[in-house]
Amino acid sequence: MSKDLEKKPVNRKDMVKNVAIAFLTVMLILTFFSNTIMNYSLPQVATVQITDGTISPQIRGSGTVTAEDPYNITVKETRKISGVAVKEGAHVEIGDVIYYLEDKESEELTKAKESLDTMELEYEQMLFSGDVPSNVITNVRNGKTASYDTYQAQVGDVLDTYNAALAEDNAAQAEIDYLTQLRAYEQAGMNYNTATPEYLLAQAQVDIEKAKNDGDEDRVVELNNFVAELTRDKSQLSTYSSQSGFSYDQKLATASEKKAKTAAALKEAERVKTDQLKSINVEISLCAKRDSIAEQKEKIAKLEAESVGSSVKSPVAGTVSSVSKVAGESTSADETIAVIQVDGKDMTTSFSVTNAQAAKLKVGDAAQPQNAWQFSSDFKATLTQIKNDKTDPAGKKLLTFKIESTEVTPGQTLSLAIGERTQNYDMIVPNSAIKSDSNGKFVLIVKSKSSPLGNRYTATRADVTVVASDDKNSAITAAIDDYEYVITTSNKPVKAGEQVRLANE
């Protein structure tokens, strides 16, 4: 018999059983994956358990401490610092040393003395240069300074003398010029008159020769008589010309002599004018140098009087809020090298809060440092002013506090808290857990339910009353257990009754 015929027939019950097992396995797998897919589509939420705790509904803020009328310590000279005697925050009395200085003159005093030496040398060299009149030297050395009116009168006198001499010299030269021109004019006339007889004489000689040739004796006699007359006229004109030349020579000689005198007088007047103007200018310069030397001496005396000696001391009692120099550095004239918060003067700090927060406060309220452990019991901060914040006048107020503490210095950042004190409550939740709608405030509690495939979580609404809040948490009352978990955040909006998944699962 063949092997196929030897096999036993399959049991029908076993077949049904195997099919059922396979079907259930497939259904279980499909159910698992469907639940997993559904879970990933659910809102993911973060939760926190309701606990008891404290609420601090105080208003907090931080600001920089500023001083009212701080005293700035300065020096009037450049000095090198050899040591610093105090630290910031130290309390000093009047006369306490702030800095120790190297024991030598300031740069300003040294330079001022060197400048004085140069000025005095230039003054003396100019005073005795040989170009300064003795009377000017005497006046300057005696400290006398002529007025501008005196200088003006002196200049006026020499200018008047010079102008008069110039006018006389110009007049003398004008007379010479006139005589010279007049002589030339008259000489030209006489030369013309002299030339006329010479021309007629020449013509007469021609006519005489012609009359001789013609044998006209009467004409010859007549012409000879005419020649004799012309000769006399020519001789007279020549004599007159010579006499006129001598006359002009005499007049020009007299005019030239006068011109020589006026030229000499003008030269002298010009010398006097030049010397006088130079004398005035030199006197003005010398007086200016003399006065500058006196001013420089006063400056040196003032620098010596203002010299701080070997140390810089505090002229007031108070707390050192700033020390800006270290040993080895140099001060500059009028530079602030330390700042002191004077005893009895106020220190203040300010910060902004919302209008709602400011409405809970009033001037006179006391504030405490947030880090109270850093301050002693004598710390005191008082609210002195509430006004609109310029950066947001409609939404914020600026609070200003008066600070009284020996442990606070200007420039320090101070954090304050003001308002109600901390209280204990049975149910505390984060502020992010509080929701609200038209029906009021509520929280979403996470309820869990077991199933064959794991826990299922559902968001359930619970109405609450907020009895106190601070910037982090709120105290609530509600008909819920104090061990419940409330939703604080979610990756998508959550409604009451919806299924959710936890962020840590």
Automatic annotation (TrEMBL):
Keywords: Membrane, Transmembrane, Transmembrane helix. GO terms for cellular component: efflux pump complex. The chain crosses the membrane at residues 21-42. The keyword Membrane applies. One of its GO terms (molecular function) is efflux transmembrane transporter activity. SUPFAM superfamilies: Single hybrid motif. InterPro entries: Single_hybrid_motif. This is RND family transporter. It comes from Butyrivibrio hungatei. The lineage of its organism: Bacteria, Bacillati, Bacillota, Clostridia, Lachnospirales.
